[in-house]
Model the fold of this input.
Amino acid sequence: MADQINTLEELSAVAGVETVAEEIVLREPVRDELGRSYATGKRKDAVARVWIKPGSGKVTVNGKDQDIYFARPVLQLILRQPFQVAGVEGEFDVVATVKGGGLTGQAGAVKHGISKALQLYNPALRGALKAAGFLTRDSRVVERKKYGKRKARRSFQFSKR
Done:
């Protein structure tokens, strides 16, 4: 085994290629002049525009407090998830405007927007948010209705006589 290659330099000499040191690209925080980060979150037919900035943890959705807009505790839990995973609960104020879909879709869209905005504000949080799956858009949408069918796939009731 005398012809075994032990180092990267030996490999490049055998292959006849110059070694190129890859430098690690660090992401820069993306913030506007007011110190906010903006992101768009989507789920089903709902689209949320989300701004986050350092604060006391207040969440405003369409001009209303989150407890009023998302009255169900489950939906409020969905909005808190990105902060819990990133470990920054109560450190950011959120202002969101959301359109389309129902309340569950809107809550998912705001959650997606918060996750993307957190990642832009502090790129070090990206790993935790990505591992939890919060940066991936849930692309499931309602299937369209087809002609000759009662719904998207449901047929009309069959009558033999």
The mean pLDDT is 88. Strands lie at 37-43, 46-54, 59-61, 64-65, 92-99. The radius of gyration is 24 Å. The chain is about 30% helix and 20% strand.
